[in-house]
Amino acid sequence: MAVEEEGLRVFQSVRIKIGEAKNLPTYPGPNKMRDCYCTVNLDQEEVFRTKIVEKSLCPFYGEDFYCEIPRTFRHLSFYIFDRDVFRRDSIIGKVAIQKEDLQKYHNRDTWFQLQHVDADSEVQGKVHLELRLSEVITDTGVVCHKLATRVLECQGLPIVNGQCDPYATVTLAGPSRSEAKKTKVKKKTNNPHFDEVFYFEVTRPSSYNKKSHFDIEDVDEVDKMEIRVDLWNASNLKFGDEFLGELRLPLKFLRQSSSYEAWYFLQPRDNGNKSLKPDDLGSLRLNVVYTEDHVFSSDYYSPLRDVLLKSADVEPVSASAAHILGEVCREKQEAAIPLVRLFLHYGRIVPFISAIANAEVKRTQDPNTIFRGNSLTSKCIDETMKLAGMHYLQVTLKPIIDEICQVHKPCEIDPVKLKDGENLENNRENLRQYVDRIFTVITKSGVSCPTVMCDIFFSLRESAAKRFQGDLDVRYTAVSSFIFLRFFAPAILSPNLFQLTPHHPDPQTSRTLTLISKTIQTLGSLSKSKSANFKESYMATFYDYFNEQKYADAVKNFLDLISSSGRRDHKSIEQPILLKEGFMIKRAQGRKRFGMKNFKKRWFRLTNHEFTYQKSKGDHPLCSIPIENILAVERLEEESFKMKNMFQVIQPERRVLYIQANNCVEAKDWIDILTKVSQCNKKRLTVYHPSAYLNGHWLCCKATADNTPGCTPCTGGLPANIQLDIDGDRETERIYSLFNLYMPKLEKMQEACGSKSVYDGPEEEEYSTFIIDDPKETYKTLKLIIEGVGNLEQEHAQYKRDKFKKTKYGSQEHPIGDKSFQTYIRQQSEISAHSI
Prior knowledge:
metal-binding, seven-stranded antiparallel sheet, RASA3_PH, five-stranded antiparallel sheet, acetylation, alpha+beta, 24% strand, GTPase activation, repeat
């Protein structure tokens, strides 16, 4: 979901690796250990939670999290909680990284000191104020100066203990006076609208025919005065109201202008808790990759996109734009991710991968090393399998992975690591049964393998067989090196990275999955001496169970099916595919005539057949909505029920299911996937009501009939197939950014092409890192790339200059106190001065 700006879309995303915490403070009890988990928060809103690591002061999490960020934010925060079974979980400390500082830590493992959490460290939100200083003539004919302070509204205030009932105090303070006034309390909202005006007498009355605004004494006093706005949460607790943030403004700036209106970011108090040592609470290791893509309309990218999409047809393929990107990027993975998504979007992924795979096979001398390196081909196929094969993994592996994680059967077969009371033979049998079951579901899943993967495997098989005609097994190993080594085995080893489990498994389960993954990987490799593949003698002994021809035959039959030409027409899989599930809060739809329309927590489940909810996971569904009955899925305005992150599922006969997700990221995910699966429904709506129907009318358009057609156009949503479930312009923008980042290497590659064209002697060392089969063709492509990147760079620069001219500091989008915008202003001023 992009933040729309004039002529441009801004996409924000973050990829986080939560490593470990160390040196947490001891628990003040006899045990001293803690049961800790970590949360990821956008400002104060939790969007992810790790598993709980029990009885440790140095908990290792090892969890990855990625999300698209659907709104603006100021801080990316991480909280360490100590679980308490009997009371509310207590916060140990937090790490808060300002948005403008995220690039400092880009893709680097960094240890952050945990900070104390108190009211001042939790300040967030902004306030809209209008100040007016004016002369007032009294009844006696003399003049005094009064200040009118209008508190209009606030946005994004922090929520304290699950509630926010805010009010504001406005104080005029000086060296010898302090006068305070208070707004009304606004219940159950962190976006309160106050619109209250308070008047303060600033100077004492003076003669009306005096020319100056202030007496000499008054001028000095005004210069030392300030207006202070404090936001508080009205609490019912005996400890008093909770501080939410404050704003301090000196009155001397009003002497330049008698009226001033602006938005301001709230700040912590000056006497915030700074006395505590920052290293008392331990530290947290994080790796954060924050990306912000500024995407123009599609026609801006046409020249660069056309050069990229022709890559599969360029001879030789090493002279193509896509291959060149792989050559100049520091890591092949950087290039593979946007390239695969772009080619998938335009339906060109199979010819592109076939071309680069065929070139790599021609350069390979030993059939035993085919596709074993981290080449552009390998990384592109990996990325394609992740995108196209996610549902395939869910159908094939998720049921048995869930069972392994829940049952916790002992499967340790290393005699050295056996626990007291465990039997080695029993453990081997447990492990053998798991391996047998997983091997069976994999080798019988060929009919479910996605078509795009099968087409790629067919191409790999043919290239390998043609290159190594004397090796009859190479047609199998070329495919098994991907489907087993790079797809099934990693998914078993780290199921959380493939969305098979929500978190990294506990140590015992992780060990079981490691042993299974090793065995499955070896079974799929079809190597001649399999027992020799294991360094550990206990693994070689265990593998003797599987030294039967039936296992090799099953693997070959499976590989034949997923890589054969003219494969069966791929029809929809009849069994339901689970797409998403989880707890949310729903409002009763009024299906019962006298039923209460209240809010209840329910377990929601979405498959490619239906959308259901039940009381708890595994219960019988209370309501089932067939996918063909979903006519629209849209956001619901917060004012409808005073609840955030709500959306609506609109059904026939204007029946609407209102749902609240746990956070903004989850709400976006549900809306996207529900829209995607229902995109092809013939009766999809074109208009909808963005607010609810309450008290006899629609809150948005005030229409009284509940069957009134919608008043707002439906959003476009997502298409239903993988080729289009990708933003091609965004991927081209990312490729442009990579080319721009590695421009020195592109220019060096141009030099290498020139050198090779005119000089046929030994290759210079600085050019030896590039694969250049045809210098003239490569030079032509490089020229087109550099020209396209240069044009896009100029467009970005022009957009920044135009935006700088139009943006007002103190507006709702850029409140006063926004450090990132202040930095941006400084940079643009320097650029403007330099250009002049």
